[in-house]
Amino acid sequence: MAAARHYMSHTNPGANPSANPGTSSDTHPDAHSETYTEAHSDAHSGGHKNIVVGVGGGIAAYKACMVIREFTKAGHTVTAIPTPAAAQFIGTATLEALTGQPVTSSVFTDIPQVRHVTVGSQADLVVVVPTTADFLSRIAAGAASDMLTTTLLMATCPILLAPAMHTQMWENSLVQRNVDTLREHGYTVMEPAVGRLTGPDSGAGRLPEPADIVDMAYSLLEGQKLAEEYSQRSQHSPAEGHGQAKERSQVGERSRAAARADLMPRELMPRDLVGRHIIITAGGTREAIDPVRYIGNRSSGQQGAALAACAAQRGAHVTLLLGAHDLPYLPAGVQVETVTSALDLQDKLTTLVETEPVDAVIMAAAVADFRPTDTATTKLKKGTDSEPDSIALTRNPDILASLTRSHPNLVTVGFAAETGDATHTVLQLGREKFARKGCDLLMVNEVGFHTTFGQPTNAGWLLGRGGTEKGTENSAGKSTDSVTVKEIPRMSKRGVAMRILDQLATLF
Question: Which residues are catalytic?
Answer without folding.
Answer: 297
